[in-house]
Amino acid sequence: MSFPARGSKRRLRWAGVLNVLALVCLLAGGSGEPARASVSLLLEQPYGGLGRVNPMGHSALYFDHICAASPTELRPCRPGELGAVVSRYDGIHDYDWLAVPLVPYLYAVESPAEIPDWMTHADVARVRDEYRRRWLQAVAPNLPDGSSPGGNWYELVGSAYDRTIYGFTVDTTAEQEARLIALFNDRRNRQRYNGLFRNCADFARVTINRLYPHAVRRNFVADFGFTTPKSVARGLSHYAEKHPEVHLRQFVIPQVEGTLPRSHEVQGITEGLIKRYGVPLVVLSPIATGVVFVAYMGHGRLDMPRDAPVLDLREQAMALTTGAAGPPAAGRRTEAPGADATASFVWPLLAAPVAAPVEPEVTVPALLSSPVPGDVRMDSSSE
Fold first, then answer.
1. Is the dihedral of CA 193, 196, 197, 201 positive or negative?
2. How far apart, in whole angstroms, are the C-alpha atoms of residue 253 and residue 352?
3. 10 Å Cβ neighbour count for 72?
4. Per-residue tens of pLDDT for the chain, all 383 residues
5. Three-state SS at 235
6. Closest by alpha carbon to 287, among 275, 295, 297, 298?
7. FRET partner for 233 with CA separation of 20 to 30 A, picked from 39, 178, 322, 383?
């Protein structure tokens, strides 16, 4: 099929139509069953020196049926691919958002079998730079002397080396994701980052609202109208309580062990004020402190999941290659997401309802992730 030759707008319109058709066919698989897919809000703990002062952390979105054709272009996943993480960053080659496959985003390697269980600062810098040189030259090119560039590009890969990450997963449909792919690929991808009103949490909030309108709103009480990563998780959780059909699930990705400093608790604005500056605030103004406390307790409180299943990709990969992965536990949902749908070994975990968490040892139907983008520089500051 060739595109009409009447200008770029019409070609983009046809490209969007083809994206919709491709994703619907891929995910539905002609099985007659509704295609199952999901989006996970990744709530990432703050780390480093700035993380102690600004405890809000970072947020990103993981789509298990949307993959990265490049760091700046999305496509439907092929069988065996694990999806991509999409987020907004500050100062990475003037792009507003970037997409990275799941395994590289978490560990800066290309397959689960390569995920390490112990890392030092030097190890992290090495694997990040190796991945950047292979897959991220378009957004983080070498300096003229061949050395690694500065900037925040290192946040694209190896996130699990820096911090613990909590996942909040809800269902999506093929039609929703096809529209999202077309929207992201067609619109101008130029930096819009603003720490107050267009930050990473705003990106997650707006994107989730494109899937589920009005699901996440700005918190004008507990966060004074600013969007924080924790407020997005709270809003999505409350939306799922009112709409159980989206099947909220939770999981945790632990920070990789090693010599790197441990990440800190993620907090909202009023929560941070109370927990970090409560005593000075009481001395300065007991009434104002009481107002902040009531705002936090009523509109800002969200406890992190304590018993959520661990998304341990390395352990699952080893279990598959050694044949040690046993049969699914009784009562666990393990059906495939369609006859020809994306075969992702994270599916059994993400499909488990939050009311009945599953064990991390699950059968792994596939290991391959799509090689696309990676990184390098450790920084003492973080979002």
1. positive
2. 16
3. 18
4. 333 344 444 444 444 544 544 444 444 443 344 457 999 999 999 988 665 666 778 999 999 999 999 999 999 999 889 999 999 998 898 899 999 999 999 999 999 989 999 999 999 999 999 999 999 999 999 999 999 998 899 999 999 999 999 999 999 999 999 999 999 999 989 887 766 668 899 999 999 999 999 999 876 555 656 788 888 998 999 999 999 999 999 999 999 999 999 998 887 656 666 666 666 665 666 766 666 566 656 555 567 777 889 988 866 555 545 554 433 333 333 333 333 333 345 655 566 554 444 333 333 333 333 333 333 333 434 45
5. helix
6. 295
7. 178
Joined together, the tokens standing for residue 153 give 């590009």
Q: Which of 359, 297, 341, 274 is nearest to 27 (CA)?
A: 341
Using CA atoms, how far apart are residues 39 and 27, in angstroms rounded to an integer? 14
d(CA 208, CA 211): 5
Beta strand segments in the chain, E: 37-44, 58-63, 66-70, 73-76, 84-88, 97-101, 165-172, 249-253
On whether the CB atoms of residues 107 and 161 are closer than 8 A, the answer is: yes
Q: For 321-327, which contacts have Cβ atoms below 8 Å and span 24 or more sequence positions?
A: 321/113, 325/361, 325/362, 325/363, 325/364, 326/361, 326/363, 327/363
Closest CA to 266 of 305, 230, 311, 314: 230
Backbone angles phi, psi at 17, to 5 degrees: -60, -45
Q: How much is the CA Rg of the chain, to the nearest whole Å?
A: 21
DSSP assigned state of 72:
T
CB 162 within 8 A of CB 121: no
Question: Which residue type sits at 370?
Answer: S
Distance CA 126, CA 132 (A): 10
Instruction: Give, in degrees to the nearest 5, the angle at Cα 14 between 209 and 138.
Output: 70
- Only one residue has tokens 């500050």, namely 90
Alpha carbons 296 and 219: distance in angstroms, whole number: 11
CA distances from 132 to 102, 103, 287 (A): 15, 14, 51
